[in-house]
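Regression test case RT-17, inverse folding.

Input:
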């Protein structure tokens, strides 16, 4: 009776079963981890916050090749010889960078900043 229960729950030991456990189980586990990482990577990496600004007359809307509207803003300095194209870091938008962009403008530069897809008031989804 005990041996039948043992065989039903544990099974008999053999090298084929051991080889299957050693090779297939970790492979399936890593495959599941890799598929999950691939599927959820964008949502983990890109986490747009609610917009820190509202669209007004100073916001320029650029249209992408897919028809989405990207928000941008130009901080013009009439005395500037150069214009800086400003790309901010993750989880920011034009609103969070405005003070820094104005500092660059006051330092003698014109500055053009834009929001990534899905950030600020830009349409689309980041990827």
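Golden output:
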């Amino acid at each position: 009776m005990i041996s039948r229960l043992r065989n039903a729950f544990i099974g008999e030991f053999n090298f084929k079963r051991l080889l299957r456990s050693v090779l297939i189980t970790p492979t399936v586990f890593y495959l599941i981890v890799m598929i999950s990482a691939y599927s959820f990577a964008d949502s983990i990496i890109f986490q747009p916050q609610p917009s820190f600004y509202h669209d007004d007359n100073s916001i320029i809307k650029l249209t992408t090749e897919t028809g989405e509207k990207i928000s941008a803003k130009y901080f013009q300095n009439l005395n500037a010889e150069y214009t800086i194209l400003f790309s901010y870091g993750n989880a920011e938008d034009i609103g969070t960078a405005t003070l820094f962009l104005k500092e660059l403008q006051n330092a003698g530069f014109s500055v053009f900043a834009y929001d990534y897809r899905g950030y600020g008031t830009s349409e689309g989804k980041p990827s």
